[in-house]
Fold:
Amino acid sequence: MAPRKIIIDTDPGQDDAVAILLALASPEDLDVLGITAVAGNVPLALTQKNARIVCELAKRPDIKVFAGCDRPLRRDLVTAEHVHGKTGLDGPQMADPTMPLQDQHGIDFIIETLRSEPAGTVTLCPLGPLTNIATAFEKAPDIVDKVQEIILMGGAYFEAGNITPAAEFNIYVDPEAAEIVFKSGVPIVVMPLDVTHKALTTAPRVAAFRDLGTQVGDMVAAWTDFFERFDKEKYGSEGAPLHDPCVTAYLIKPDLFTGRHVNVEIETVSELTKGMTVADWWRVTDRPANALFMGDMDAAGFYDLLTERLARL
Ligand code: BDR
Ligand code: CA
Structure:
C-alpha cells in the first residue's frame, strides 16, 4: 500500500518532536507533505523554529515547514513553558536550524494541498491547538470534504484536565477552533489524556532510547528526561506521557489503540469548564457520533514501535 499522505500541524514541544521523528522514520507508512506550526506550548516564533530543528535532527531538511497562526481565534494565547521549558524544547543543547522556513503561510499550504491532492487522500494530524485547521476550514470551506481523516491529540474524559480541572491544554487554548473542527463532519480520531497518560516513559524505556547509541536516541532520551520532571513532581507518576506520538503511532499501527465512536462537544462558554471535551462515552444522549474517542492503548507495543523506528534515524 502507498504511504498515507499527512500534514502534521504542531507546536513543538518535546512530545511533538518525538511524534514528528516517528513519522519521518516511517516513510513506508507515512508521506509527510509538510509541517505547519501553530502557537501553543510556546509562541509561534519558537514552534516553527523547533519544527525545523526536529527535521534537521532527522536529516530531513527537505521537509517543508510553514508558520501558521500566532494566536487563537478569539482568545489570548496561553502557553506551557512550565511543562516544556522556555524554548519549548528545553533539555539538550541544540543549534539553530539552517533549513529555511517556507514563505507561504501555513493556512494557505493546508488549503492548497487539499485542493491539489485527490479528495480523501490527505490526513491532518494536529498535535497542538486547532487554530490552523479551523482557520483553513473557515477560509476555504470547500476543503473540508476533501480531508481523509483528522487524527488529533487533545481532550480528555476520564482524566479530565491538565491545564484546568476540566480541560486538556490543546483544546483549552483554542476551544472555538476545536468546536469548528469537531463540528466539521470530517472523520476524527481523538487521542485524549485517557490514552496518552498510559504512554508513560519509564527508566527502562528511556534507557532503550539512549541505548540506540545515535544522536536521535540521545536527544529523545534527554528531552524525555526534561519533560518527565514536571509530571513526576506534579502527579507523582513514574514518568512523562508521550502524548503526541500516539497520533503518529496510530497511523502506523492502529491496533495499538481501542476506543468508541461517540459524540464529542466542546465547551466554549463556561469560564469554569471552557475547553472541556464533553464526550458521550456512555452514549446517554442521542447526539450523533462525530469522533472515534480512544480509551486504551498497548503501551508496551507503542514503546517497542517507537524504539524500533527511531533506531532507523
Ligand atoms: C498536549 O499539550 C502539549 O503540552 C503537548 O505537546 C500535547 O500536545 C497535552 O495536553
Ligand atoms: Ca503538542
Observations:
- The longest helix spans residues 215-235.
- The mean pLDDT is 96.
- Residues 11, 13, 16, 41, 127-128, 244 surround calcium ion (ligand 2) (CB under 6 Å).
- The radius of gyration is 18 Å.
